[in-house]
Amino acid sequence: MPPRLTRSDPSAGPGTPGRGVAARIAFAATDFHEDLKSFDIPTLVVHGDDDQIVPIDATGRKAAALVPDATLKVYEGGSHGLALVPGYKELFDQDLLEFLGR
Q1: Which residues are CB-neighbours of 44 under 8 A, at least 6 positions away?
Q2: Which candidate, 72, 75, 84, places its Cα nearest to that of 45?
């Protein structure tokens, strides 16, 4: 098992590395294209342009193109989990509140 999918992985839950791995496999193997096309509310897609785990071109930009009325916010230099990274999390909060206020 790769080191990032060990028991210490917070997405796996306490003492349950199998669930985290299974969730990642299911998410990676599921085709969400039609689901994204069916969104009928304004949608904010937020992505860092330096995400090495989930590349922006394969995910963020693609999702924003598929969702009707989507707004894409790209954070220059932003990595994976940027909503938890100091500096980016404040920007994310500001952008989210602005989006919700529309």
Answers
A1: 70, 71, 73, 95, 96, 99
A2: 72
Q: What is the pLDDT of residues 32-80, one digit of tens each?
A: 899 999 999 999 999 999 999 899 999 999 999 999 999 999 999 999 9
Mention every residue, 6+ apart, whose C-beta is less than 8 A from residue 72: 45, 46, 47, 60, 61, 64
Residues 6+ apart with CB under 8 A from 95: 44, 46, 73
What pairs with residue 46 in β-bridges? Answer: 73
The three-class DSSP label of residue 22 is helix
Residue 62 to residue 39: CA distance in whole angstroms: 14
In a 3-state reduction of DSSP, which class is residue 37?
helix
